[in-house]
Amino acid sequence: MAAWSERLAGVRGVLLDISGVLHDSGEGGGVPIPGSVEALARLKRSQLKVRFCTNESQKSRGDLVGLLRHMGFDISEGEVTAPAPATCLILKERGLRPHLLIHDGIRSEFAQIDTSNPNCVVIADAGESFSYQNMNKAFQVLMELDNPVLISLGKGRYYKETSGLMLDVGAYTKALEYACGIKAEVVGKPAPGYFQSALQEMGVESHEAQ
Amino acid sequence: MAAWSERLAGVRGVLLDISGVLHDSGEGGGVPIPGSVEALARLKRSQLKVRFCTNESQKSRGDLVGLLRHMGFDISEGEVTAPAPATCLILKERGLRPHLLIHDGIRSEFAQIDTSNPNCVVIADAGESFSYQNMNKAFQVLMELDNPVLISLGKGRYYKETSGLMLDVGAYTKALEYACGIKAEVVGKPAPGYFQSALQEMGVESHEAQ
Q: Nearest-CA distance from B184 to chain A in Å?
């Protein structure tokens, strides 16, 4: 294996995931992964640019960063690429008014969005809010549209919490896709455009990042 | 269009769906579809054998038949092919002990089934019982199995109730399939084996039925 200095030749920036990389989420915000606070501090002291790219869609960026700072991580809101703000840009650009199937913890990110008379559905990791009633309401909204648009914040199958594996938004997106006979647009990893926007915000080209 | 007598030449039996054919389900058991009580009565007076083949998985056969009789339909429990009893046969044959993700209305059909230490998941149209917590529990059971078996009672996308369209079991089965990376076994229409067993119970060959 090549030395780190060799492997990092030409690399100007590092894009870090958050959940499962910095911490394991869970009750009370979860726990830091051993060594990750120190690793991030070292990266920040280096010449490399650092940015965070997450699919977190249960918490607002503010709440997420607050939790991580409390655990000792050197992180600020402006350094985080998250799917909810990216979705808000898309909604505004395309004149879309969403019905929101989301967790209450992220509702504040959509405060400036017109949700009257919806012409699309936005689905995020709603957790306990994935009730039958809420899923059925989103389904009915889609079925009433001539051109049903479903925007999914990520397409994860599941994630790990301190208490065990948890179903992620991707599973529920598949349910709506199947019921409505449509294909969702994914905002979040692994959509290439999402990584690109994170790189742009970091100010490096894709061949310069790791 | 050929006359009915011509079209029915060689036909010895008729397999009828229930929901959407005899009645529209909904609050208080739903409402009969106009003309269907009389049409069934005429069929029963004819030379044709009649059997019912449903994907109903929220109610036990007894409860379903009770509702339909109350609406005026000439129907008895023994004339109904339903996915829950068919599933029980499969579970017994293969020594499977299910974790049940089902509606309370159908739990009695599984009364004779060993559900201790589950080695498979059975999913039916659980309606309001499709909570995040219940879905996640079924997901966790599957993820803990070396050879995860998921049996789905039908794979309908949605059905119509008097109050509107409702998400059906197929959507939730897709969610679990995606999350676990597996394929469910379907007991119910449109699985050919399910139609075959209904025909067998009616005592006619597939080319003799309509």
A: 14
